[in-house]
Amino acid sequence: MAQAKIHAKLNESACSKFSRTLSMADRSGRLLESLDQLEMRVEALRDAASAMEQERESILEMIQSLQNSQEMRNICPGEREELNLTANRLMGRTLSVEISIGTIRNPQQEEALQKATSIIDEIVKKLLSDMEGSRQHLLALHAACVTEAPPVPIDQKFQAIVISCALEDQKKIKRRLETLVRNTENAEKNIKIMDHQKLEDTKANGGH
């Protein structure tokens, strides 16, 4: 009789434990599902912040491009001053928007980012003294960041450095190079236009 009660108690304990285990597994599954949903929201948040960061960069670039445009030079000084004041106001308001997206890096990725940034910075320093040579070098660096076959030679050393960077840093490096290439191309066009106008003015003055 006593032995039967012991067996019954053991069976009851086993059933209770089994039910408790199932319940814990169920709770664990629900928690995991919640974390999965939160992870998707975190990634969506980072994507949205990245899009805002790119929009900020685009707006700043457009304002600078407008200020340096040929159209701005062709208007009278009074109107140009007024438009520049508006552009500077917009520039200030845009710069007041601060967006920060942290990137987790291991020591190798940190070192690679520093090397890539240093290489680009050195080229930027040479832009004024050698714009065409610097532009070609920038194109070679940019070619190292794209997957499709580029029409220009690839800087293999820079490509190896970029591959060692964190994925988010790779995207930012590529965007920075794209912006620099566009700016140098626009600067070259403006210089050619200004030089052409100078020649035309010289001819006109000589004609008189």
TrEMBL record:
One BP annotation, GO: protein stabilization
Q: Does the keyword Zinc-finger apply?
A: no
Q: PROSITE patterns annotated for this entry?
A: BAG
Q: Is Coiled coil a UniProt keyword of this protein?
A: yes
One MF term in the entry's GO annotations? adenyl-nucleotide exchange factor activity
Domain of life, per UniProt, equals Eukaryota
* Domain BAG as annotated: residue spans: 112-192
The name under which this protein is listed is BCL2 associated athanogene 2
Higher taxonomy = Eukaryota, Metazoa, Chordata, Craniata, Vertebrata
Coiled coil ranges: 28-69, 167-197
Q: Which UniProt keywords apply?
A: Coiled coil
The record lists the organism as Poecilia latipinna (sailfin molly)
